[in-house]
Amino acid sequence: MNGSSFGSIFQVSTWGESHGKALGVVVDGCPAGINLTEKDFESAMARRRPGQTKYVTPRAEQDQVEILSGVFEGRTTGTPISLVIRNTSQKSGDYSEIAHIYRPGHADYTFDAKYGFRDYRGGGRSSGRETASRVAAGVVAGKFLEELGIATTAYVKQIGPCECVNGVYSKDGTVSDEAEEKTRTGFVPSREMIEKSPLRMPDPDASARAEEYLSELMKQGDSAGGIIECIVTGVPAGVGDPVFGKLDALLGHALFSIGAVKGVEIGAGFSVAGMNGSTDNDAFSSSGIKLTNNSGGILGGISDGDDIVIRAAFKPTPSISKPQQTVTDKGEEITIEVRGRHDPVIVPRAVVVVESMVNLVLTDRLLVGMSAQMDRIKAFYKN
Amino acid sequence: MNGSSFGSIFQVSTWGESHGKALGVVVDGCPAGINLTEKDFESAMARRRPGQTKYVTPRAEQDQVEILSGVFEGRTTGTPISLVIRNTSQKSGDYSEIAHIYRPGHADYTFDAKYGFRDYRGGGRSSGRETASRVAAGVVAGKFLEELGIATTAYVKQIGPCECVNGVYSKDGTVSDEAEEKTRTGFVPSREMIEKSPLRMPDPDASARAEEYLSELMKQGDSAGGIIECIVTGVPAGVGDPVFGKLDALLGHALFSIGAVKGVEIGAGFSVAGMNGSTDNDAFSSSGIKLTNNSGGILGGISDGDDIVIRAAFKPTPSISKPQQTVTDKGEEITIEVRGRHDPVIVPRAVVVVESMVNLVLTDRLLVGMSAQMDRIKAFYKN
Amino acid sequence: MNGSSFGSIFQVSTWGESHGKALGVVVDGCPAGINLTEKDFESAMARRRPGQTKYVTPRAEQDQVEILSGVFEGRTTGTPISLVIRNTSQKSGDYSEIAHIYRPGHADYTFDAKYGFRDYRGGGRSSGRETASRVAAGVVAGKFLEELGIATTAYVKQIGPCECVNGVYSKDGTVSDEAEEKTRTGFVPSREMIEKSPLRMPDPDASARAEEYLSELMKQGDSAGGIIECIVTGVPAGVGDPVFGKLDALLGHALFSIGAVKGVEIGAGFSVAGMNGSTDNDAFSSSGIKLTNNSGGILGGISDGDDIVIRAAFKPTPSISKPQQTVTDKGEEITIEVRGRHDPVIVPRAVVVVESMVNLVLTDRLLVGMSAQMDRIKAFYKN
Amino acid sequence: MNGSSFGSIFQVSTWGESHGKALGVVVDGCPAGINLTEKDFESAMARRRPGQTKYVTPRAEQDQVEILSGVFEGRTTGTPISLVIRNTSQKSGDYSEIAHIYRPGHADYTFDAKYGFRDYRGGGRSSGRETASRVAAGVVAGKFLEELGIATTAYVKQIGPCECVNGVYSKDGTVSDEAEEKTRTGFVPSREMIEKSPLRMPDPDASARAEEYLSELMKQGDSAGGIIECIVTGVPAGVGDPVFGKLDALLGHALFSIGAVKGVEIGAGFSVAGMNGSTDNDAFSSSGIKLTNNSGGILGGISDGDDIVIRAAFKPTPSISKPQQTVTDKGEEITIEVRGRHDPVIVPRAVVVVESMVNLVLTDRLLVGMSAQMDRIKAFYKN
Description:
4 copies of one chain form a homotetramer.
Chain A: E1 5-6, E2 11-16, E3 22-28, H1 42-48, E4 65-67, E5 71-72, E6 75-76, E7 81-86, H2 108-115, H3 131-147, E8 151-159, E9 162-163, E10 168-169, E11 175-176, H4 178-182, H5 191-196, H6 204-220, E12 226-233, H7 247-256, E13 261-266, H8 277-280, E14 298-299, E15 302-303, E16 308-314, E17 324-327, E18 333-336, H9 347-368, H10 374-382
Antiparallel strand pairs in A: 1-2, 2-3, 3-7, 4-7, 5-6, 8-9, 8-12, 10-11, 12-16, 13-16, 14-15, 17-18
């Protein structure tokens, strides 16, 4: 594995640079017979697209997905689905001044160290723009999961010091703690509540405070980090594999592969360090559901039938206009102020990227998981 | 990938159950010419072995590694190295009573859901005993890394509420903050300081408090969680791949594949959510070293030449003797008290497992990374 | 992939050298619930074992397979099955004289070129003895295929100039051309007819002539090549993948991975070069079966429901006692006469190796193939 | 692996159907720093392109390769290279009549069996047109190999009964047997001699006879099969891996993955069945070269420094206008005459496809092979 492919049965291979002609992804191993049109990509791509609000870069990309193969008469054929997104608004001129500078927090230095040189325009392959390909692939996976009644929802849980309180949000903005009974570590906000907030924070109060916080940072030419939580409902028990193929290991891999992620936790996450076995263990009940969900829906790497709950911490956008100390590729110290079109916070746009990566993992493991039991295989081939 | 193999060039495949005849691992893709004897495994295996202190299970396993292939006249031959560890102290009788019970916090239920039945003796394949194979493989990787001047050190940073303070520990137990200058997120304790503590906490004060804390828990038949930090020195800049092959993504995969891990963070980790770009970005200096190391040694998924710093949160041992509510495989509710030989805390024994997994990732990526530049490949083949 | 693993879902990893302590294989991804005991391996291992007749090396190995993991209470658990075969009759002394000589037709020179040195005892990893591990893995695959009604039969079609005539052989040694109607390229001899011949040639006449031919060669210290044909019945249509995952591509890979194979052909094979579309194309009939089987049961890389027919050409055993010119690892020219225990012809023992490799491919592709159609996946998960 | 990806380090993923919008390939793992422009693809694409002579389909495709990513300022960047070839001359109307008919010798039936339905236009994914993507990828691999002094040459050895005689061809059409001294199984014709013949047969006499033969077949609405031989010079000894990663196994996989291939042989190939050890074994000489090359340049799966010689047998084009018996997808028997634009023989256009597949294997194994020896790895990282 070189880095641009992911998955074993449902395998995606992304390609493309921030300022190249196009980006795209080849989705191989998608089952035949799933309805798929170019229209299916619009909503997800729009959620990732720049230029949505004042909190995201104004770069104007339509991010239109073109299907070049693998779909015939509106259905997937089982052969590779090639998806292409043309870059229409790249402005290479913006970047020429950083061709020989290593921007702090970026991959400029490490790409040079690895490859000897780099496509410096907008971060090249290391640009967040690469995630457009993942979202396109995630849409295909999402269509697959939908057929099995599985739904993935991510939202912004925290930006800087502003955090959504746990609970279930109703449309009128009130919050109840129903979810507490079941899931100490998460809750499932509706897509509607999430999209109501320009920051994708379903807690209206937290969202408002975060808007203020960001406005202040933008004046200072600075940026903020945040946390995204993702909840998956409808995953049957028994998905995932022991040892290195654990569902949590693959989800961890998936989320850490998103550029700015510096931490990932599942279920009770880091708080388990301070817990005891008697408080962390989720009791099984005869209703077939655990009384708590500290496990985050995964035990021994295999889904336990409960909601899967996972969180990722994103670092602040490294491109800031505040002066920073750094060096050139000749080792000379200089001060830079990164100009151009940058997001003061990345998490609102990353919500759909997190969902996409989670979808890729689940789709793949559901397909791999079909071969776990001889009896079921026999029944499959007898039909 | 089914779950029991890891790595692309340096590929390990582990096998074995807690109470089977043996456990083991096949290491394929190890370069030829590395000195390796059965003695090389002793120190690492001893660090993971049960029965070391009163804080670990007394199960008496020698965990002797036998080399069955891939080594000739004391050197690796480049062909698969088969390592076997015989189980000598399994007592299946201990486990018969849980054959039809789903223990909270364990994989009993999920294995049944996936496979239709399970080897219930001591957790079977989902037992922590499986990590013995990983440690054996990690020793081989460690020998490889040693030849390149790379050293991996993990230690227990936290048990329950007892946390090592950041700093550099000297033999006399004093702590200075030298490390602060370079690494806000970690420090490098000596192996000597770590091994001095029965809990592998190099901060003598934290270690003493944790011992008290655990003694109290053991009386109650309860268990504790904790955090392990791992620091790798000597990794050259340029190791790792973009996108899905990011070094952090592979490290995340590796650590989340350890049974009890519920959270992983790199560098500044979850604290980045509350930071700003201006404080999180590590300035590059002309000395070739970053002024801070919030990146944890990885930028854009590729090593930046700095120490790699990674942490994992481990849940409390789920096997506790306190009564717990659960169900049988027939769905009947019952109360169980898990008997047998269990660790009140798993982190001290997991330290070497974390090191091993990190070693596996780095070895693989160093080998894969040789093919990044045409010029260097040409030079390689001209020699 | 480094070379010692094969398969994507049903993945085997072999290890071991000719004169090491043991050989073995880890079978990962085998479905749970298949009955498997150590006794199941005996018949297949016996067919590959040395010392069966005067035409094979007298090295006395019992080739007893020990199951170390992955089987519980007589059934596979879905976790890795570790199989070990102890070497009991290695005589390293026999080989010391060739430590510094490159035997013609062997891998001595190429292993040194690749790895810098080699385990020279009996060919080390390049020894045909490595195939014992494959046969053990093939037994597991065979048990899987048996559950689906699929049977694999290989036999020796040709040794030197002595060739079985096409047809169907009855117990009394007569031959009819019934098979001609269906399969111009092959026929299905019974296991009984095959095992009757010490050379595994079901045509008694050809077998007798081949015995004479070999006796003569043995007097001269020389060896013979041959051809093995393998027929698989019961494979449903639709197994295999387009492009690089073609069933024929994987079968070709599998058979060429057997040491002495220099040619592989499927169905009409090399004779297609001289045929025309009108004679090579197999007409489809309304009975659901093709009128001929030049395709060898595979069209476009996917099984067509007909018998799969594949052949492999094996070179003569390179170890001969006739004097040969060669060089030492210092480049000095010398003449050698290879002594020790060698087979004058390898094909009789390779029959079961061919079957095993074919079984591995089919098992893997049957498992991978479960994810081809959304409707069937949905039905699978709804049950 | 689902079928559309190939290689482990140098990994290609092809996509596209005969009558879709486009075809293409993602080349991941290509080293950085190789000069590459769209012009580099022209010559190879032209050799595969339809419409070259009267012996190939007149479908008018320009087969222009567009580079969408992975190249910056004329050099590869080490990130995925996305190559796209637009379909410009597809005429879907031509194919509507075969939407419900299973053409003999084609994959229509097997695709339906696997996927439940198919893109029937021109064979969809199973069309020979898919090989355009492979040739594009092969060009990138060829540029890599060129830097290491490795050259791959394929030519048509046989069409129907017309076969090139072994030897070395000079421009004036005479043939000498110089090559016999070194390579009993092959010879290296110049690209010039090959391209002089419209059938890519460097033996002018054989080429002329084959032209006559084909003209006659075309009148009858029939087609011919053939054999392509491929010779690779300059491969250093030591490339390839033992067991399943054998160079011959991977080459066999690669060539059998080309649609019409029914047989593959290496070096002396199928003739080894009739040879003896004393005649088949290639003697090593002190000059560092073997006296013969029955091995075809590979011993024990690893290159021996000699020319690699491999042959593939291609079946006759299954699309013929002669009436053929077959069935519809409802099982009704009918007679069809396949109309449209088809090649009477496929081998002349397949020559460059064979070269491409061989290049892909060699490039991948040269990269994988860098990690074989600890000393060389150490030297690599010390530089």
